[in-house]
């Protein structure tokens, strides 16, 4: 009996550490598994946040106000002199109710589409230059003129499958004269001399020529004013001589070149 008790006492301490080792090994393995799962979850969260940030940035570029709910104004201007004055501010409806008319040169703060609409409303644009009348069919009718421009943009998109705002910008660049003449008087003699045109005046003259060409196209013809504006913008954007604005610009520059 004494020998059996001694053998049991010797075997007991050998079994206890085995149980302790097994108990100690389980938590370490569970902790390592939990840490691995946490690391995977953290990587997934970071990837999701990075993806959401990239999507937010992309949405910030793509989303935004569209002119008439359809056309983007994110357009590159090739004529460097007109960048400061050709305003392509993102607006839904280009109508600011005259908030920038308090100072002289604040008209450059208006969106270029609203400036075109204001030019089309000018008295004398429709009939005044043709038969001497000083009245206009669209004088003071801002909403009517904006509808005309919106329909003209839709026609431009159907004809060319391009952004009509970009076509308008190209038309303005092609019809803005860079050189003009002025009268100089010395003693009793007066003569014409060529001068460079300021960027603000270049933009004003381009809008004036486009509106006047539209008025002349629509006079005494079965075409609607929307179709005439579409043809004028399309021809001017291509630099075509059939455009009244481009022809007028080249005439101004030709006279100025001869007066150098």
Structure write-up:
Strands 1-2 form a two-stranded antiparallel ribbon. Helix 2 (112-120) crosses helix 6 (199-218). By secondary structure, the protein is mainly alpha-helical. The chain has helices at 2-62, 112-120, 128-131, 142-160, 164-175, 199-218, 225-237, 244-258; strands at residues 179-186, 189-196. The chain contains 8 helices and 2 strands; from the N terminus they run H-H-H-H-H-E-E-H-H-H. The N and C termini lie far apart (134 Å). Strand 1 (179-186) and strand 2 form a beta hairpin. The protein has a domain at 80-258: Ribosomal protein S7/S5 (Ribosomal Protein S7, Orthogonal Bundle). The longest helix is centred in the first third of the chain and has 61 residues, at 2-62.
Which SSEs are present, and which pair or pack?
Layout: H1 2-62, H2 112-120, H3 128-131, H4 142-160, H5 164-175, E1 179-186, E2 189-196, H6 199-218, H7 225-237, H8 244-258
Antiparallel strand pairs: 1-2
Helix pairs in contact: 2-4, 2-6, 4-7, 5-6, 5-7, 6-7, 6-8
Order of helices and strands: HHHHHEEHHH
Shape: globular
Which percent band covers the strand fraction? Answer: 5-15%
Q: Give the class from helix and strand content and strand pairing.
A: mainly alpha
CATH fold name of the domain at 80-258, please?
Ribosomal Protein S7
**Poorly predicted segments:** 1-31, 48-63, 126-130
| Cα radius of gyration in angstroms | 37 Å
| Major sheet characteristics | 2 strands, antiparallel
């Amino acid at each position: 009996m004494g020998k059996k008790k001694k053998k049991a006492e010797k075997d007991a301490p050998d079994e206890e550490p085995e149980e302790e080792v097994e108990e100690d090994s389980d938590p370490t393995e569970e902790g390592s598994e939990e840490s691995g799962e946490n690391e995977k979850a953290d990587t997934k969260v970071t990837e999701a946040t990075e993806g959401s940030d990239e999507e937010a940035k992309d949405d910030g570029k793509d989303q935004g106000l569209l002119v008439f709910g359809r056309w983007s104004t994110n357009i590159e201007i090739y004529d460097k002199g007109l960048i400061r004055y050709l305003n392509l501010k993102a607006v839904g409806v280009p109508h600011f109710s005259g908030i920038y008319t308090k100072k002289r040169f604040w008209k450059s703060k208006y969106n270029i589409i609203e400036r075109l609409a204001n030019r089309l409303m000018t008295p004398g644009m429709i009939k005044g230059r043709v038969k001497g009348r000083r009245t206009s069919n669209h004088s003071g009718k801002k909403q009517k003129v904006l509808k005309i421009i919106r329909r003209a943009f839709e026609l431009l998109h159907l004809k060319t499958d391009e952004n009509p705002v970009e076509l308008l910008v190209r038309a303005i660049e092609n019809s803005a004269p860079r050189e003009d003449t002025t009268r100089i008087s010395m003693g009793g003699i007066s003569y014409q001399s060529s001068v460079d045109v300021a960027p603000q005046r270049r933009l004003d003259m381009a809008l004036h020529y486009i509106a006047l060409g539209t008025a002349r196209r629509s006079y005494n013809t079965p075409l609607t004013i929307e179709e005439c504006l579409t043809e004028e913008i399309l021809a001017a954007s291509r630099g075509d001589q059939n455009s009244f604005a481009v022809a007028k610009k080249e005439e101004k520059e030709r006279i100025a070149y001869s007066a150098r």
